[in-house]
Amino acid sequence: MATTPSFFETPAPAGLTGIKAWLLTHDHKRLGLMYLWAVLFWFALALVIGLLLRLELMTMGRTIMSAGVYNSAFTLHGVIMIFLFVIPGIPAIFGNFFLPIQLGTDDVFFPRLNLLSWYLYILGGLLAIVSLFTAGGFPDTGWTFYVPFSIGTKHNVPMTVFAAFILGMSSMLTGLNFITTVHRKRSPNMGWMQIPLFTWSLYATAWVQVLATPVISITLLLVIAERLLNIGLFDPGRGGDPILYQHLFWMYSHPAVYVMILPGMGVVSEIIPTFSRKAIFGYKAIVFSSMGIAIAGSLVWAHHMYTSGMSDTAIFVFSLLTFLVAIPTAVKVFSWVSTLYKASIEMSPPLLYALIFIYLFSVGGLTGLVLGAAGPDIHVHDTHFVVAHFHFTMFGGTGFAFFAALHFWWPKMFGIMYNFRRAYIAATLTTVGFLFHYVPMFILGMMGMPRRSYDYLPQFAQGNALATVGGILLFTGIALMLVNLLLSFRSRIAAPANPWGGCTLEWTVPSPPPLHNFLRQPDIQDYPYDFTEILRKS
Ligand SMILES: [Cu+2]
What we know:
Helix content: 55-70%
Largest sheet: 2 strands, antiparallel
CATH architecture: Up-down Bundle
Radius of gyration: 23 Å
CATH class: Mainly Alpha
Strand order of the largest sheet: 1-2
CATH topology: Cytochrome C Oxidase, Chain A
Number of helices: 17
Bound molecules: copper (II) ion
Order of helices and strands: HHHHHHHHHHHHHHEHHEH
Distance between the termini: 23 Å
Strand content: under 5%
Shape: globular
Structural class: mainly alpha
Oligomer: single chain
């Protein structure tokens, strides 16, 4: 049996050995792996904090922590999940590893800048954790750092906000690298309509990263300036305007939800045709819907502010625009389902996660329409209905797309296969736990249970107890999934170059890929998802 190279043997840049071959690497694949372990660490930490929050809400009154700790814990959970997992996860790991290969080239355009992005990511994470142990402790404001509370609170807002600023820099530089690579390093015989959909989704995402992130960067610096220099920008007591902060914050943070979801949609657009052995339905429609979402998604930010005193006209306009964004999103779901229609589907763990993604994200999207409509939104604003909604979109969406990507590309990244049976059990447990955890929250929200509150009224007790059972199941399922993948390093079952019968370029190179990816100029398919050749051979 061929000996499978361990991931320590992924080719090191010339002349570098040992730890230096990692910490000074310019290789996009190694950087993808370095992001993988860092992102998994942050994800696991935020998951544990999430479980502790859920255990606290298991019963009324104090269960395992005080109200002060609870406020800092949900802020920490949100900051880590959003800035260190959901935003960077798929682009930094799988984008770095696979975008150059899918384009038929040897690396990104700016390899050194890529290394800097990784160091900024690590620095941002460390700063966030250090702020836990400084005077005032971790902020208790929620991940949105709303003013005037974030100006007045004694907790250490400036350091955490600066950590988010640094992470924004890392995200922007990664986006810049991807845009330049798609334009300048694409295989000479690859036209725009021959680029795989995962790479297209990263390209659309990168434009949002580059254009929207500066807004939040400046806003966060202004919060630090107001706190440290005592200038009145947002605090009404000093002539500032707190609503201005909300506009600036959501001008980034709503487009940021597309930075979170577009790469996940790109993963699903790779998985569905591969296991359907069928060209994807509506390739061009999916490409243009990615760009459409990136553009239209920048025009809806104030749907987070219907209760901020905005005029009815403004509410009407932002509500209408919010409904418009649903159209390109629906185009993607329609294309995925149409590709599956009458296909010779071959089930696999990646496909299972992709199907669960479609279901959970659709529930998230549809409840987004409820929140986009002013009437119902004003009723459920800042309740657990909103918490359930964004966990369906960000966790049910991006989280499950992340799990799908892990199972789809693990054999290619490490050259080893994992146990399918355990993978299916973990996926089922995670999904059942997810539904028991978040569905009750929709109901609790409709009943009026406010979010971000340490305690609740007796009528909410049953729903919270049920959600806690779901939370424990969810946590167990994810733990089993990660253990199963890590166990593959022990069983070391060699992975072939193309375990799934995929037809994009990463499946034409060995597992794991050699240092420069291709030994000669790769052949580019006229159409990116043409399975005729694969089916003829099988
Ligand atoms: Cu929004």
